[in-house]
Amino acid sequence: MSFEDQLKSLFIEESQIPQEFQLGEEVHQREYLSNGEMKKWDGPVSEVYSPVCFPGPDGLKRKLIGSYPLGTEKEAMEALDAATAAYDNGRGEWPTLSVADRIACVEQFTFKMLEQRDKVIKLIMWEIGKSIADSTKEFDRTVEYINLTIDALKDIDRQSSRFEIEQGIVAQSRRSPLGVVLCMGPFNYPLNETFTTLIPALIMGNTILFKPPKHGTLVHYPLLEAFRDCFPKGVVNTVYGRGANTVPGLMQSGKINVLTLIGSSKVANELKKMHPKVNRLRAILSLDAKNAAIVTKSADLQMAVTEIVLGSLSFNGQRCTALKITFVHKDIVDEFLELLSAEISKLKLGMPWLKGVNITPLAEPQKPEYLKECIEDAQAHGGKVINDHGGATAASLVFPAIVYPVNSQMKLYREEQFGPIIPVVPYESIEEPIQYQIDSVHGQQVSIFSNDAKEISALIDPFVNLVSRVNINSQCQRGPDVFPFTGRKDSAEGTLSVVDALRSFSIRSLVATKLNETNKQLLNEIVNNHDSNFLSTKYIF
Ligand code: G3H
Protein backbone atom coordinates (compact mmCIF):
# COMPACT_ATOMS: atom_id res chain seq x y z
CA MET A 1 0.00 0.00 0.00
CA SER A 2 1.40 3.44 -0.91
CA PHE A 3 2.00 5.90 1.92
CA GLU A 4 -0.84 8.12 0.63
CA ASP A 5 -3.16 5.10 0.80
CA GLN A 6 -2.00 4.47 4.36
CA LEU A 7 -2.87 8.07 5.18
CA LYS A 8 -6.27 7.68 3.53
CA SER A 9 -6.97 4.60 5.59
CA LEU A 10 -6.69 6.71 8.76
CA PHE A 11 -10.07 8.22 7.85
CA ILE A 12 -12.59 5.66 9.07
CA GLU A 13 -16.31 5.09 8.62
CA GLU A 14 -18.54 7.08 10.97
CA SER A 15 -19.85 3.89 12.55
CA GLN A 16 -16.32 2.92 13.62
CA ILE A 17 -15.83 6.04 15.76
CA PRO A 18 -16.05 5.20 19.47
CA GLN A 19 -19.44 6.32 20.81
CA GLU A 20 -17.96 8.71 23.40
CA PHE A 21 -16.32 10.83 20.66
CA GLN A 22 -19.24 10.96 18.24
CA LEU A 23 -20.82 14.36 17.89
CA GLY A 24 -24.33 12.98 17.83
CA GLU A 25 -26.84 15.12 16.03
CA GLU A 26 -25.68 17.84 13.65
CA VAL A 27 -25.78 21.28 15.25
CA HIS A 28 -27.92 23.61 13.17
CA GLN A 29 -27.86 26.94 14.97
CA ARG A 30 -30.89 29.08 14.08
CA GLU A 31 -30.61 31.73 16.78
CA TYR A 32 -28.11 34.29 17.99
CA LEU A 33 -27.71 36.44 21.08
CA SER A 34 -28.51 40.12 20.72
CA ASN A 35 -29.88 42.64 23.20
CA GLY A 36 -30.47 40.03 25.90
CA GLU A 37 -32.50 37.71 23.67
CA MET A 38 -31.83 34.56 21.72
CA LYS A 39 -33.23 35.88 18.44
CA LYS A 40 -34.63 33.44 15.92
CA TRP A 41 -32.91 33.28 12.52
CA ASP A 42 -34.56 32.12 9.33
CA GLY A 43 -32.18 33.72 6.82
CA PRO A 44 -29.27 32.13 4.95
CA VAL A 45 -26.84 29.94 6.85
CA SER A 46 -23.23 28.85 6.52
CA GLU A 47 -22.67 25.12 6.60
CA VAL A 48 -19.92 23.79 8.84
CA TYR A 49 -17.79 20.93 7.60
CA SER A 50 -15.40 19.12 9.89
CA PRO A 51 -11.82 18.54 8.72
CA VAL A 52 -12.56 14.94 9.67
CA CYS A 53 -13.52 13.18 6.44
CA PHE A 54 -15.44 9.99 5.79
CA PRO A 55 -14.78 7.62 2.91
CA GLY A 56 -17.53 7.49 0.29
CA PRO A 57 -18.07 6.59 -3.36
CA ASP A 58 -16.37 9.88 -4.42
CA GLY A 59 -13.41 9.48 -2.07
CA LEU A 60 -12.86 11.28 1.24
CA LYS A 61 -15.41 13.99 2.06
CA ARG A 62 -15.49 16.43 4.96
CA LYS A 63 -18.34 15.64 7.35
CA LEU A 64 -21.17 18.16 7.62
CA ILE A 65 -21.56 18.87 11.33
CA GLY A 66 -24.00 21.77 11.35
CA SER A 67 -24.63 25.33 10.26
CA TYR A 68 -24.93 28.83 11.71
CA PRO A 69 -26.68 32.10 10.79
CA LEU A 70 -25.12 34.10 8.01
CA GLY A 71 -26.14 37.43 9.49
CA THR A 72 -25.94 40.70 7.58
CA GLU A 73 -24.99 44.27 8.38
CA LYS A 74 -28.55 44.84 9.64
CA GLU A 75 -28.22 42.36 12.53
CA ALA A 76 -24.66 43.57 13.23
CA MET A 77 -25.90 47.16 13.54
CA GLU A 78 -28.76 46.05 15.81
CA ALA A 79 -26.21 44.33 18.03
CA LEU A 80 -24.13 47.51 18.03
CA ASP A 81 -27.18 49.55 19.06
CA ALA A 82 -27.81 47.10 21.90
CA ALA A 83 -24.21 47.29 23.14
CA THR A 84 -24.20 51.09 22.85
CA ALA A 85 -27.48 51.35 24.78
CA ALA A 86 -26.24 48.95 27.48
CA TYR A 87 -23.11 51.05 27.91
CA ASP A 88 -25.20 54.25 27.79
CA ASN A 89 -22.17 56.56 27.78
CA GLY A 90 -20.87 54.84 30.89
CA ARG A 91 -24.17 55.28 32.76
CA GLY A 92 -25.56 51.82 32.01
CA GLU A 93 -26.19 49.20 34.68
CA TRP A 94 -23.10 47.16 33.74
CA PRO A 95 -20.43 49.90 33.60
CA THR A 96 -21.66 51.38 36.90
CA LEU A 97 -22.04 48.08 38.74
CA SER A 98 -19.63 47.50 41.63
CA VAL A 99 -16.60 45.36 40.85
CA ALA A 100 -17.85 42.76 43.35
CA ASP A 101 -21.16 42.49 41.49
CA ARG A 102 -19.47 42.21 38.11
CA ILE A 103 -17.25 39.45 39.49
CA ALA A 104 -20.35 37.64 40.79
CA CYS A 105 -21.88 37.68 37.28
CA VAL A 106 -18.68 36.28 35.74
CA GLU A 107 -18.53 33.58 38.42
CA GLN A 108 -22.09 32.59 37.64
CA PHE A 109 -21.21 32.49 33.94
CA THR A 110 -18.20 30.24 34.65
CA PHE A 111 -20.43 27.87 36.56
CA LYS A 112 -22.85 27.64 33.63
CA MET A 113 -19.95 27.35 31.18
CA LEU A 114 -18.68 24.30 33.08
CA GLU A 115 -22.08 22.65 32.60
CA GLN A 116 -21.41 22.80 28.83
CA ARG A 117 -17.85 21.45 29.10
CA ASP A 118 -18.31 18.16 27.23
CA LYS A 119 -20.34 19.74 24.42
CA VAL A 120 -17.84 22.54 23.86
CA ILE A 121 -14.81 20.23 23.93
CA LYS A 122 -16.41 17.93 21.35
CA LEU A 123 -17.28 20.89 19.12
CA ILE A 124 -13.69 22.18 19.27
CA MET A 125 -12.47 18.73 18.24
CA TRP A 126 -14.98 18.28 15.40
CA GLU A 127 -14.92 21.82 14.11
CA ILE A 128 -11.18 22.47 13.94
CA GLY A 129 -9.69 18.98 14.20
CA LYS A 130 -7.83 19.67 17.45
CA SER A 131 -6.96 16.48 19.36
CA ILE A 132 -9.33 15.60 22.16
CA ALA A 133 -6.48 16.09 24.67
CA ASP A 134 -5.73 19.61 23.37
CA SER A 135 -9.42 20.49 23.03
CA THR A 136 -9.89 19.52 26.67
CA LYS A 137 -6.81 21.54 27.61
CA GLU A 138 -8.20 24.53 25.72
CA PHE A 139 -11.46 24.45 27.66
CA ASP A 140 -9.84 23.92 31.06
CA ARG A 141 -7.15 26.53 30.43
CA THR A 142 -9.91 29.02 29.59
CA VAL A 143 -11.76 28.35 32.83
CA GLU A 144 -8.50 28.73 34.73
CA TYR A 145 -7.86 31.99 32.86
CA ILE A 146 -11.25 33.32 33.97
CA ASN A 147 -10.54 32.36 37.58
CA LEU A 148 -7.10 34.02 37.46
CA THR A 149 -8.71 37.11 35.93
CA ILE A 150 -11.17 37.32 38.81
CA ASP A 151 -8.32 37.03 41.34
CA ALA A 152 -6.29 39.68 39.51
CA LEU A 153 -9.24 42.07 39.45
CA LYS A 154 -9.84 41.58 43.16
CA ASP A 155 -6.21 42.44 43.71
CA ILE A 156 -6.38 45.57 41.55
CA ASP A 157 -9.58 46.58 43.32
CA ARG A 158 -8.04 46.14 46.77
CA GLN A 159 -5.12 48.33 45.77
CA SER A 160 -7.59 50.97 44.54
CA SER A 161 -9.80 50.89 47.64
CA ARG A 162 -7.93 53.71 49.33
CA PHE A 163 -7.33 57.41 49.15
CA GLU A 164 -4.00 58.97 48.31
CA ILE A 165 -2.96 62.38 49.57
CA GLU A 166 -0.42 64.40 47.61
CA GLN A 167 0.36 68.14 47.81
CA GLY A 168 -2.88 68.90 49.62
CA ILE A 169 -5.06 66.95 47.19
CA VAL A 170 -6.87 63.78 48.19
CA ALA A 171 -7.79 61.38 45.41
CA GLN A 172 -9.03 57.91 44.72
CA SER A 173 -8.19 56.31 41.38
CA ARG A 174 -9.62 53.20 39.83
CA ARG A 175 -9.74 51.58 36.42
CA SER A 176 -12.88 52.39 34.42
CA PRO A 177 -14.30 50.81 31.27
CA LEU A 178 -13.73 52.18 27.78
CA GLY A 179 -17.09 51.52 26.08
CA VAL A 180 -18.14 49.13 23.33
CA VAL A 181 -15.60 46.42 22.52
CA LEU A 182 -15.61 44.54 19.22
CA CYS A 183 -14.01 41.19 19.92
CA MET A 184 -12.85 38.75 17.23
CA GLY A 185 -10.97 35.56 17.94
CA PRO A 186 -8.96 33.14 15.76
CA PHE A 187 -9.88 29.65 14.52
CA ASN A 188 -6.91 27.87 16.08
CA TYR A 189 -7.92 28.69 19.67
CA PRO A 190 -11.57 29.58 19.05
CA LEU A 191 -12.57 29.45 22.70
CA ASN A 192 -9.41 30.29 24.60
CA GLU A 193 -8.09 33.21 22.61
CA THR A 194 -11.53 34.75 22.18
CA PHE A 195 -12.13 34.57 25.91
CA THR A 196 -8.70 35.95 26.83
CA THR A 197 -9.93 39.26 25.40
CA LEU A 198 -13.70 38.97 25.86
CA ILE A 199 -13.65 38.13 29.59
CA PRO A 200 -11.22 40.89 30.70
CA ALA A 201 -13.09 43.40 28.52
CA LEU A 202 -16.40 42.30 30.03
CA ILE A 203 -15.34 42.17 33.66
CA MET A 204 -13.92 45.70 33.44
CA GLY A 205 -17.42 47.02 32.65
CA ASN A 206 -17.32 47.30 28.85
CA THR A 207 -20.12 46.02 26.65
CA ILE A 208 -19.31 43.46 24.00
CA LEU A 209 -19.91 42.72 20.35
CA PHE A 210 -18.49 39.33 19.77
CA LYS A 211 -17.88 37.85 16.35
CA PRO A 212 -17.00 34.14 16.43
CA PRO A 213 -14.21 32.98 14.09
CA LYS A 214 -14.99 31.46 10.68
CA HIS A 215 -13.95 27.98 11.85
CA GLY A 216 -14.77 27.35 15.51
CA THR A 217 -18.13 29.14 15.33
CA LEU A 218 -20.42 26.43 16.66
CA VAL A 219 -18.07 26.04 19.65
CA HIS A 220 -19.68 29.16 21.11
CA TYR A 221 -23.30 28.16 20.57
CA PRO A 222 -23.68 26.17 23.83
CA LEU A 223 -22.48 29.22 25.80
CA LEU A 224 -24.86 31.86 24.42
CA GLU A 225 -27.66 31.19 26.89
CA ALA A 226 -25.20 31.48 29.77
CA PHE A 227 -24.17 34.92 28.47
CA ARG A 228 -27.84 35.88 28.18
CA ASP A 229 -28.68 34.70 31.70
CA CYS A 230 -25.66 36.03 33.58
CA PHE A 231 -25.32 39.59 32.24
CA PRO A 232 -27.73 42.51 31.83
CA LYS A 233 -29.37 42.81 28.44
CA GLY A 234 -27.18 44.16 25.66
CA VAL A 235 -23.92 43.58 27.56
CA VAL A 236 -22.88 40.61 25.41
CA ASN A 237 -24.11 40.49 21.80
CA THR A 238 -23.06 38.24 18.96
CA VAL A 239 -22.31 39.11 15.35
CA TYR A 240 -22.72 36.21 12.92
CA GLY A 241 -21.98 36.39 9.21
CA ARG A 242 -19.07 37.12 6.91
CA GLY A 243 -16.65 39.68 8.34
CA ALA A 244 -16.58 41.60 5.05
CA ASN A 245 -20.36 42.17 5.26
CA THR A 246 -20.77 42.80 8.96
CA VAL A 247 -17.65 44.46 10.37
CA PRO A 248 -17.01 47.50 8.08
CA GLY A 249 -20.35 49.11 9.07
CA LEU A 250 -19.55 48.61 12.74
CA MET A 251 -16.16 50.29 12.41
CA GLN A 252 -17.46 53.11 10.19
CA SER A 253 -20.14 53.94 12.78
CA GLY A 254 -17.42 55.36 15.05
CA LYS A 255 -19.19 53.68 17.99
CA ILE A 256 -16.59 50.98 18.56
CA ASN A 257 -14.26 52.10 21.35
CA VAL A 258 -11.98 49.08 21.39
CA LEU A 259 -11.08 46.69 18.60
CA THR A 260 -9.63 43.45 19.84
CA LEU A 261 -8.64 40.99 17.18
CA ILE A 262 -6.49 37.91 17.10
CA GLY A 263 -5.79 37.47 13.43
CA SER A 264 -3.87 39.05 10.58
CA SER A 265 -2.17 42.46 10.61
CA LYS A 266 -3.64 43.14 7.16
CA VAL A 267 -7.22 42.82 8.45
CA ALA A 268 -6.38 44.78 11.62
CA ASN A 269 -4.93 47.68 9.61
CA GLU A 270 -7.91 47.78 7.25
CA LEU A 271 -10.41 47.79 10.12
CA LYS A 272 -8.63 50.47 12.10
CA LYS A 273 -8.60 52.79 9.09
CA MET A 274 -12.40 52.46 8.77
CA HIS A 275 -12.98 54.17 12.13
CA PRO A 276 -13.78 57.85 11.54
CA LYS A 277 -11.81 58.94 14.63
CA VAL A 278 -8.83 56.66 15.00
CA ASN A 279 -7.71 58.54 18.11
CA ARG A 280 -10.85 57.27 19.88
CA LEU A 281 -10.14 53.67 19.01
CA ARG A 282 -8.01 51.51 21.25
CA ALA A 283 -6.67 48.38 19.59
CA ILE A 284 -5.56 45.24 21.40
CA LEU A 285 -4.22 42.96 18.72
CA SER A 286 -2.38 39.68 18.50
CA LEU A 287 -1.27 39.26 14.90
CA ASP A 288 1.08 37.47 12.50
CA ALA A 289 4.26 35.84 13.69
CA LYS A 290 7.12 33.84 12.23
CA ASN A 291 9.06 32.82 15.32
CA ALA A 292 12.56 31.51 14.68
CA ALA A 293 14.51 28.79 16.46
CA ILE A 294 18.29 29.26 16.46
CA VAL A 295 20.40 26.19 17.13
CA THR A 296 24.05 26.94 17.82
CA LYS A 297 27.05 24.58 17.80
CA SER A 298 26.96 24.26 21.58
CA ALA A 299 23.30 23.18 21.77
CA ASP A 300 22.14 19.90 23.25
CA LEU A 301 20.87 18.67 19.89
CA GLN A 302 18.47 15.99 21.10
CA MET A 303 16.83 18.43 23.50
CA ALA A 304 16.66 21.11 20.77
CA VAL A 305 15.01 18.64 18.40
CA THR A 306 12.40 17.63 20.99
CA GLU A 307 11.49 21.27 21.65
CA ILE A 308 11.53 22.22 17.96
CA VAL A 309 9.17 19.37 17.09
CA LEU A 310 6.81 20.53 19.84
CA GLY A 311 7.19 24.18 18.86
CA SER A 312 6.75 23.60 15.13
CA LEU A 313 4.11 20.90 15.09
CA SER A 314 1.84 21.15 18.15
CA PHE A 315 -1.68 21.41 16.73
CA ASN A 316 -0.10 20.84 13.30
CA GLY A 317 1.89 24.09 13.52
CA GLN A 318 -1.34 26.12 13.70
CA ARG A 319 -0.33 28.35 16.63
CA CYS A 320 0.61 31.99 16.35
CA THR A 321 3.51 31.16 18.68
CA ALA A 322 4.67 28.18 16.61
CA LEU A 323 8.29 27.95 15.51
CA LYS A 324 7.98 28.68 11.80
CA ILE A 325 11.63 28.75 10.74
CA THR A 326 14.73 27.06 12.20
CA PHE A 327 18.31 28.33 11.81
CA VAL A 328 20.97 25.69 12.45
CA HIS A 329 24.77 26.19 12.43
CA LYS A 330 26.14 24.54 9.29
CA ASP A 331 28.65 22.40 11.25
CA ILE A 332 25.89 20.54 13.07
CA VAL A 333 23.08 20.74 10.54
CA ASP A 334 23.48 17.19 9.17
CA GLU A 335 23.30 15.63 12.62
CA PHE A 336 20.38 17.93 13.50
CA LEU A 337 18.41 16.93 10.40
CA GLU A 338 18.98 13.25 11.08
CA LEU A 339 17.70 13.57 14.64
CA LEU A 340 14.78 15.74 13.51
CA SER A 341 13.75 13.27 10.79
CA ALA A 342 13.91 10.40 13.29
CA GLU A 343 11.71 12.33 15.72
CA ILE A 344 9.17 13.19 13.04
CA SER A 345 8.92 9.59 11.95
CA LYS A 346 7.72 8.72 15.48
CA LEU A 347 4.76 11.11 15.33
CA LYS A 348 1.31 9.63 15.37
CA LEU A 349 -1.04 10.82 12.62
CA GLY A 350 -4.74 10.29 12.74
CA MET A 351 -8.17 11.34 13.87
CA PRO A 352 -8.40 13.81 16.75
CA TRP A 353 -10.02 11.41 19.21
CA LEU A 354 -7.04 9.01 19.14
CA LYS A 355 -4.99 8.77 22.29
CA GLY A 356 -1.53 10.30 21.87
CA VAL A 357 -2.25 11.59 18.33
CA ASN A 358 0.15 14.37 17.20
CA ILE A 359 -0.94 15.33 13.70
CA THR A 360 -4.63 15.72 12.91
CA PRO A 361 -6.75 16.93 9.94
CA LEU A 362 -6.41 20.62 9.02
CA ALA A 363 -9.47 22.86 9.40
CA GLU A 364 -8.85 25.28 6.54
CA PRO A 365 -9.97 23.55 3.31
CA GLN A 366 -7.31 25.25 1.15
CA LYS A 367 -4.42 24.63 3.56
CA PRO A 368 -3.10 21.32 2.10
CA GLU A 369 -2.95 22.96 -1.35
CA TYR A 370 -1.12 26.00 0.07
CA LEU A 371 1.41 23.82 1.89
CA LYS A 372 2.03 21.91 -1.36
CA GLU A 373 2.65 25.23 -3.13
CA CYS A 374 5.16 26.24 -0.43
CA ILE A 375 7.04 22.96 -0.85
CA GLU A 376 7.06 23.21 -4.66
CA ASP A 377 8.24 26.80 -4.45
CA ALA A 378 11.09 25.74 -2.15
CA GLN A 379 12.01 22.90 -4.51
CA ALA A 380 12.12 25.35 -7.43
CA HIS A 381 14.65 27.39 -5.44
CA GLY A 382 16.97 24.54 -4.49
CA GLY A 383 15.29 23.11 -1.37
CA LYS A 384 14.39 19.47 -0.72
CA VAL A 385 11.99 17.63 1.52
CA ILE A 386 14.48 15.62 3.51
CA ASN A 387 12.31 13.34 5.63
CA ASP A 388 10.49 10.22 4.47
CA HIS A 389 6.92 10.97 3.36
CA GLY A 390 7.31 14.69 4.17
CA GLY A 391 4.35 16.59 2.67
CA ALA A 392 2.40 13.42 1.79
CA THR A 393 -1.27 14.37 1.80
CA ALA A 394 -4.63 12.63 1.98
CA ALA A 395 -7.57 15.04 2.01
CA SER A 396 -7.09 17.23 5.13
CA LEU A 397 -4.22 15.23 6.61
CA VAL A 398 -0.66 16.35 5.79
CA PHE A 399 2.45 14.50 6.94
CA PRO A 400 5.01 17.00 8.35
CA ALA A 401 7.77 18.03 5.95
CA ILE A 402 11.28 19.16 6.81
CA VAL A 403 12.42 21.47 4.01
CA TYR A 404 16.17 22.08 3.65
CA PRO A 405 18.14 24.18 2.80
CA VAL A 406 15.78 27.13 2.91
CA ASN A 407 16.93 30.47 1.51
CA SER A 408 15.61 34.00 1.15
CA GLN A 409 14.08 33.38 -2.29
CA MET A 410 11.51 30.96 -0.91
CA LYS A 411 8.01 31.64 0.40
CA LEU A 412 8.87 29.54 3.44
CA TYR A 413 11.57 32.05 4.40
CA ARG A 414 9.06 34.85 5.05
CA GLU A 415 5.47 33.55 4.92
CA GLU A 416 3.72 32.31 8.03
CA GLN A 417 2.94 28.77 6.83
CA PHE A 418 0.68 27.98 9.82
CA GLY A 419 0.91 24.26 9.07
CA PRO A 420 3.14 21.18 9.43
CA ILE A 421 6.29 22.28 7.56
CA ILE A 422 9.65 22.86 9.27
CA PRO A 423 11.86 25.10 7.10
CA VAL A 424 15.54 24.75 8.09
CA VAL A 425 18.13 27.42 7.18
CA PRO A 426 21.85 26.62 7.61
CA TYR A 427 23.94 29.55 8.90
CA GLU A 428 27.63 30.25 9.27
CA SER A 429 27.66 33.46 11.30
CA ILE A 430 25.24 34.20 14.14
CA GLU A 431 24.78 37.60 12.48
CA GLU A 432 22.62 35.81 9.85
CA PRO A 433 19.67 34.89 12.13
CA ILE A 434 20.01 38.26 13.90
CA GLN A 435 19.81 40.03 10.54
CA TYR A 436 16.80 37.83 9.62
CA GLN A 437 14.98 39.10 12.68
CA ILE A 438 15.96 42.72 11.98
CA ASP A 439 14.60 42.44 8.42
CA SER A 440 11.47 40.57 9.48
CA VAL A 441 8.09 42.29 9.66
CA HIS A 442 7.36 40.12 12.69
CA GLY A 443 8.62 40.41 16.25
CA GLN A 444 6.83 38.02 18.56
CA GLN A 445 9.31 35.51 20.08
CA VAL A 446 12.50 33.58 19.43
CA SER A 447 13.93 30.30 20.77
CA ILE A 448 17.69 30.06 21.29
CA PHE A 449 19.23 26.61 21.71
CA SER A 450 22.71 26.69 23.26
CA ASN A 451 24.48 25.47 26.38
CA ASP A 452 27.06 28.25 26.41
CA ALA A 453 26.15 31.02 28.87
CA LYS A 454 28.33 33.62 27.13
CA GLU A 455 26.85 32.83 23.75
CA ILE A 456 23.31 32.99 25.14
CA SER A 457 23.86 36.32 26.85
CA ALA A 458 25.32 37.80 23.65
CA LEU A 459 22.07 36.81 21.91
CA ILE A 460 19.64 37.85 24.65
CA ASP A 461 20.59 41.51 24.45
CA PRO A 462 19.93 42.06 20.74
CA PHE A 463 16.87 39.81 20.67
CA VAL A 464 14.96 41.35 23.58
CA ASN A 465 14.85 44.54 21.51
CA LEU A 466 13.70 42.72 18.38
CA VAL A 467 11.02 40.40 19.80
CA SER A 468 8.97 40.28 22.99
CA ARG A 469 10.03 36.98 24.50
CA VAL A 470 13.36 35.19 24.26
CA ASN A 471 13.05 31.49 25.10
CA ILE A 472 16.21 29.65 26.10
CA ASN A 473 16.34 25.95 25.22
CA SER A 474 12.54 25.93 25.04
CA GLN A 475 9.92 26.27 22.34
CA CYS A 476 8.01 29.56 21.94
CA GLN A 477 4.68 29.74 23.72
CA ARG A 478 2.12 32.10 25.12
CA GLY A 479 1.75 30.62 28.59
CA PRO A 480 1.80 30.60 31.51
CA ASP A 481 -1.02 33.11 31.12
CA VAL A 482 0.25 35.35 33.90
CA PHE A 483 3.28 36.21 31.74
CA PRO A 484 3.00 39.16 29.34
CA PHE A 485 2.05 38.11 25.82
CA THR A 486 2.78 40.67 23.13
CA GLY A 487 4.94 41.35 20.09
CA ARG A 488 6.73 44.04 18.13
CA LYS A 489 6.26 45.31 14.55
CA ASP A 490 3.35 43.52 12.81
CA SER A 491 2.98 40.90 15.55
CA ALA A 492 0.88 42.70 18.16
CA GLU A 493 -0.47 45.86 19.66
CA GLY A 494 -1.04 46.03 23.41
CA THR A 495 -0.23 43.34 25.94
CA LEU A 496 -2.26 40.38 27.10
CA SER A 497 -1.50 38.63 30.35
CA VAL A 498 -4.09 38.00 33.01
CA VAL A 499 -3.25 41.36 34.65
CA ASP A 500 -2.21 43.28 31.52
CA ALA A 501 -5.50 42.44 29.79
CA LEU A 502 -7.44 44.08 32.62
CA ARG A 503 -5.34 47.20 32.09
CA SER A 504 -5.67 47.03 28.30
CA PHE A 505 -9.48 47.08 28.48
CA SER A 506 -9.75 49.95 30.94
CA ILE A 507 -8.54 53.46 31.63
CA ARG A 508 -7.60 55.11 34.89
CA SER A 509 -10.12 57.59 36.26
CA LEU A 510 -9.79 59.48 39.51
CA VAL A 511 -11.87 61.58 41.86
CA ALA A 512 -9.87 64.35 43.51
CA THR A 513 -10.49 67.25 45.85
CA LYS A 514 -8.59 69.79 47.95
CA LEU A 515 -8.11 68.45 51.42
CA ASN A 516 -10.12 70.81 53.64
CA GLU A 517 -12.68 70.17 56.39
CA THR A 518 -15.76 70.47 54.17
CA ASN A 519 -14.38 68.10 51.51
CA LYS A 520 -13.17 65.63 54.14
CA GLN A 521 -16.66 65.51 55.57
CA LEU A 522 -18.23 65.08 52.13
CA LEU A 523 -15.91 62.22 51.23
CA ASN A 524 -16.55 60.52 54.57
CA GLU A 525 -20.29 60.81 54.10
CA ILE A 526 -20.17 59.32 50.59
CA VAL A 527 -17.94 56.46 51.71
CA ASN A 528 -19.85 55.73 54.92
CA ASN A 529 -23.21 55.70 53.15
CA HIS A 530 -21.86 53.48 50.32
CA ASP A 531 -23.48 55.92 47.90
CA SER A 532 -20.91 55.50 45.13
CA ASN A 533 -19.49 52.32 43.61
CA PHE A 534 -16.40 54.22 42.49
CA LEU A 535 -15.65 56.29 45.60
CA SER A 536 -15.52 53.48 48.08
CA THR A 537 -13.08 51.85 50.46
CA LYS A 538 -14.87 48.48 50.51
CA TYR A 539 -12.53 45.52 50.16
CA ILE A 540 -13.29 42.45 48.07
CA PHE A 541 -11.79 39.35 49.66
O1 G3H B 1 -2.09 30.95 18.50
C1 G3H B 1 -1.45 31.49 19.40
C2 G3H B 1 -1.65 31.12 20.82
O2 G3H B 1 -1.68 32.23 21.65
C3 G3H B 1 -0.59 30.21 21.26
O3 G3H B 1 -0.73 29.90 22.58
O4 G3H B 1 1.61 29.19 22.86
O5 G3H B 1 -0.08 28.61 24.54
O6 G3H B 1 -0.11 27.52 22.30
P1 G3H B 1 0.22 28.72 23.10
UniProtKB/TrEMBL annotation:
Keyword Lipoprotein among record annotations: no
Molecular-function GO terms, alphabetical: oxidoreductase activity, acting on the aldehyde or oxo group of donors, NAD or NADP as acceptor
Assigned keywords, A-Z: Oxidoreductase
InterPro entries named in the record: Ald_DH/histidinol_DH, Ald_DH_C, Ald_DH_CS_CYS, Ald_DH_N, Aldehyde_DH_dom, Aldehyde_DH_Superfamily
Domain called Aldehyde dehydrogenase: residue spans: 62-505
Gene3D superfamilies assigned: Aldehyde Dehydrogenase, Chain A, domain 1 (3.40.605.10), Aldehyde Dehydrogenase, Chain A, domain 2 (3.40.309.10)
Protein name in UniProt: Aldehyde Dehydrogenase
Family: Belongs to the aldehyde dehydrogenase family.
Source taxon at top rank: Bacteria
Annotated source species: Mucilaginibacter paludis DSM 18603
Annotated TM spans: none
